[in-house]
Amino acid sequence: MANNSExxxxxxxxxxxxxxxxxxxxxxRFPAETQANxxxxxxxxxVICVLLFGIPVMLGxxxxxxxxxxxxxxxxxxxxxxxxxxxSGFLGILCSYLILTFYMVVSGWTLEYLYQSLSGxxxxxIPGVEEGSNLQFADRMQEYVAGIWPxxxxxxxxxxxxxxxxxxxxxxxxxxVSNILMPLLFLILIILCVTAMTLPKxxxxxxxxxxxxxSKITPDVCIxxxxxxxxxxxxxxxxxxxxxxxxxxxxxxxxxxFTVSILDMLVAILVGMIxxxxxxxxxxxxxxxxxSALVFVTFPEIFNRMWxxxxxxxxxxxxxxxxxxxxxxxxxxxxxxYFSNHFKMKRIPATCMVLIPLVLLSALSSxxxxxxxxxxxxxxxxxxxxxAFTANILMPLGAFIxxxxxxxxxxxxxxxxxxxxxxxxxxxxxxxxxxxxxWITPILIVIIFGASVLMK
Length: 456
Ligand code: TRP
Hints:
Elements: H1 10-21, H2 24-36, H3 40-68, H4 72-79, H5 86-119, H6 134-145, H7 149-167, H8 170-197, H9 202-210, H10 219-232, H11 239-244, H12 253-281, H13 293-304, H14 309-342, H15 347-367, E1 376-377, E2 380-381, H16 382-409, H17 414-419, H18 430-455
Antiparallel strand pairs: 1-2
Helix pairs in contact: 1-8, 1-12, 1-14, 2-10, 2-12, 3-4, 3-9, 3-10, 3-12, 3-18, 4-5, 5-7, 5-14, 5-16, 6-13, 7-8, 7-14, 7-15, 8-12, 8-14, 9-12, 10-16, 10-18, 13-14, 14-15, 16-18
């Protein structure tokens, strides 16, 4: 492996991993899921899912990556040669590519919105449409994302930016960029959050978000919360196996997993503390956040009612673009790592091999019958099928297989070795983590899915 394939510092490692975790999933998917699944009740189940499933599964991925010191497939192969567990890594790479196809397109829209916010066009009235209304922004959204050329070009810009970072490698590309962008993301988030607290009905928004109605907790809400936790923490697709292989020997995996998960959850909660006060203060609670409405209609409507809409909107879309780009990078890295490792390819050709099909695909889908305008790829609606299928089914399935592997079939002592860095650090949680992976994670995943099937 090139000597560049290790994160050079603790901060860089955290920034890069948080960069992967914090993405459209936190700023977009989380509030939309919260609204669709009963507000605070969803938040509660989500937090439990992160602590009970997210952290152990994340530790499992880190451990496989660092012990195998390879990509998502070859790490399994090295740890259990001749056994079929590598298929789990293979499925991960396949799914991560599936996610990438729509994640890059949506990241492109985000960049387009950033541009339109900075230029002010987003807020210029449309003749015949009530100014600042839902309709105005819904029309704008149609215009921006349903066109043929602009969304395609913005997708290409996204791919180019990610490609440039990825070509520079793990340390000089991913780590360096994350070190700059992640602090910026947190700064903007705090500014927006403080501002949201000054809105007239901030406390009502917070009450909706933080006071759970326990009667709303159903198996479906649990599946959605589980899917959200996996998606948001970048689990079940080999991303964190790949990143784990870039960790140093003395990295404390447990501390890293806690730090990353808590920061990721914090971002989602802060975003909730921005959107729900905004929605309540301006009487938008009847609006659905479904599909792309939340970020491209509801958020602009809120900003439009505040002082200096362009400022808030630009800050927000910088935030969203940063979140989207660092995550896109991590999703693409899964495949790039595989090609460069397995086929001994240099980084630049491997990056091109992964990204060029996306360029062609986006051209194909927007030029042929304007598939993008219906927001579909390969005949699936982006947000309906792709997203729910990957997050709610494939990711928990991937995590299930991995937990069974780690709990029952992985080389004896491997996990403990990784959790204690070969016995050099004490880890009081090692036993608990093993117990969770062996029993709780697989059994609860089966129960949640079983319950949801039976309730149907
Ligand atoms: N976690 C990211 C988000 O919240 C998305 C993401 C990055 C991801 N890498 C992943 C999702 C791997 C699943 C698997 O937006």
